[in-house]
User: Which sequence fits this backbone?
């Protein structure tokens, strides 16, 4: 059997982070649990059934431009990491996409049985950044959190992202995809800032 993981990083005192493609059907239960919580309201899947969540990720699995990953820490699911080509996304209508850009959406799971751990989000963001900038050989990461999602934005800024403009992402209404209009705070992280020297 081939290794399903696309990235692995061991961090002393934290554990081993592994990233693999999200399996729309097999992972639907755990992801549905996360996106159904009030804390995940900005993810845009509150109120969806488990099957609807599975359908969204099955659709995404068929795209060349957008990819969903399940992130595990020592074998336990801890986050969803979505990557996308900004030139193939509605965000391209709001900023000038540069060669080497990659877009990222991050949903970190609730603390769970172990309880909150200091440095948890920072360690996961470091692994995500290493994967997309080094593992995927990209020059710059763009994120577009909802402007009201102050927690997520603060987390990105602490990690070295530079704030960009506040933009309005246009509504997408297609047979397979519906995304409401969204006011977002763009932020960017270059490989030089993330990995100086």
Assistant:
């Amino acid at each position: 059997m081939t290794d399903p993981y696309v990235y692995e990083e061991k961090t002393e005192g934290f554990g081993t982070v592994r990233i693999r493609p999200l399996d729309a059907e097999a992972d639907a239960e755990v992801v549905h649990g996360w996106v159904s919580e009030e804390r995940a309201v900005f993810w845009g899947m509150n109120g969806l059934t488990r099957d609807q969540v599975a359908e969204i990720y099955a659709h995404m699995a068929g795209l060349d431009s957008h990819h969903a990953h399940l992130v595990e820490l020592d074998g336990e699911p801890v986050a969803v990491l979505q990557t996308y080509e900004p030139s193939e996304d509605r965000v391209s209508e709001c900023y000038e996409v540069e060669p080497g850009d990659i877009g990222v959406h991050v949903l970190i799971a609730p603390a769970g049985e172990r309880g909150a751990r200091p440095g948890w989000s920072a360690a996961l963001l470091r692994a995500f950044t290493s994967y997309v900038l080094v593992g995927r050989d990209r020059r710059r990461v763009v994120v577009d959190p909802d402007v009201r999602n102050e927690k997520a934005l603060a987390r990105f800024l602490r990690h070295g992202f530079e704030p960009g403009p506040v933009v309005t992402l246009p509504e997408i209404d297609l047979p397979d995809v519906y995304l409401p209009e969204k006011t977002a705070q763009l932020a960017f992280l270059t490989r030089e800032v993330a990995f100086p020297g």
